[in-house]
Amino acid sequence: MDPRKQRSRDRLYTAALTLAADQPISSLTVTQLADAAGVHRSTFYEHADSPQGLVEAALTAELDVLRSDLMKDPADAATAVATVTEGVLHHILRHVDIYRRELADGGGALHAMLGRHFRGTTETLLERGRVRIPVDVDGVSAATVQAAAARFLADGTVGIIDGWLRHPSPRVEDFLRVYLALLPAWWPHRPEV
Fold first, then answer.
1. What single string gives the DSSP state of each residue in 139-169?
2. Whether 10 contacts 54, CB under 8 Å
3. Nearest to 176 by CA among 75, 82, 63, 67
4. Whole-structure pTM over 0.85, yes or no?
5. pLDDT, tens digit, 9 for 90 and up, residues 21-44
6. How far apart are CA 144 and CA 97, in angstroms?
């Protein structure tokens, strides 16, 4: 990416996350975000088509770095998944005001974004052979079972995150205790926390 365009994008991401920490994403405007980033409205539209899209892109960019680290990690799948899971939780805590408000019992702006991200991570792990789902269902193809498992893990994880964020002082170790107890035995994870 052109350095000037990257600087504009970085300023827009910073403005989006700063403003979204203080007010609902639905109340943000393109003008407000462009002004806060010190860019023109037309520059905003080079990076997103809406305020919600910009906030999601800013958060997803951070999550994508964690996903990339998972794919590069030569450790066993359970260790790599555990490390990235903790990284995602710390990411969420850095942006707790945004996530707490915008997950909103499955109806918030970020619920679908997080679900897509987790599902994509699971699908990538499966495609690259980093994990395997040894579940056979009579009359159902392995691909269908894998797709269902990816959705099950993603949506369940987002649901647990939503519940975890309802605590006034969410702690990573508390999330992990519940999460690890609920993970299916076929998903790679280290049982100790």
1. TS-HHHHHHHHHHHHHHHHHHHHHHHHTSSS
2. no
3. 82
4. yes
5. 999 999 999 999 999 999 999 999
6. 36
